[in-house]
Amino acid sequence: MEYQQNQAHVQAFLVDAAFDRLSKNQQEHAQRILQQVNQLMADRHQLDDCHWTGAALAAVLDHELYQDGQAPYRQVISTIPVLKAYQKFLKVEHVKELAQVMDEHRKTMQANWKATARMDARKLPGLAKNNGRCGP
User: Fold this and answer.
1) Are the CB atoms for 35 and 10 separated by under 8 Å?
2) SS3 for 52-113, per residue?
3) Rounded CA gap, 24 and 8, in Å?
4) In whole angstroms, what is the distance from residue 17 CA to residue 10 CA?
């Protein structure tokens, strides 16, 4: 696997028309999303960005990405559109299968993030008594 090519691919994507078609929010978070997902794929699944599998992608989305609740919500909601655009840009052979996996696991990824983010908010001083909210 060519892990070093991941960085070159991300940089090429960031100046491509495919990147320009993303929303402003998606563009703002694209580089971080791609760095995080590529790192998880490399470290935990030994896959570079041209060789993602549906099973590895499902594991990343469901159990590995955003498990600490630290990512901003706007990044979380940008993840699937960015990953779809990136894989399409790379012209991987099984882009449709990967897109289907992304669609199937989007809700689980977002729900996991929400659950973790809520738990973290309850730990902040002054927020616990308001159920993690700023107001009454």
Assistant:
1) yes
2) CCHHHHHHHHHHHCCCCCCCCHHHHHHHHHHHHHHHHHHCCCCHHHHHHHHHHHHHHHHHHH
3) 22
4) 13
Task: Give tens-digit pLDDT for 10-47.
Answer: 999 999 999 999 999 999 999 999 999 999 999 999 99
Q: Within 13 A of 14's CA, how many CA atoms are on the CB side? A: 14
Which amino acid appears at position 84 of this protein? K
Q: How many residues does the chain have?
A: 136
* Predicted pLDDT at 50: 94
What is the SS3 assignment for 21?
coil
Q: Which amino acid is at 31?
A: Q
Reported pTM:
0.84
Please tell me the distance from the alpha carbon of residue 113 to that of residue 119, in angstroms, as a whole number: 10
Are the C-beta atoms of 98 and 105 separated by less than 8 Å?
no
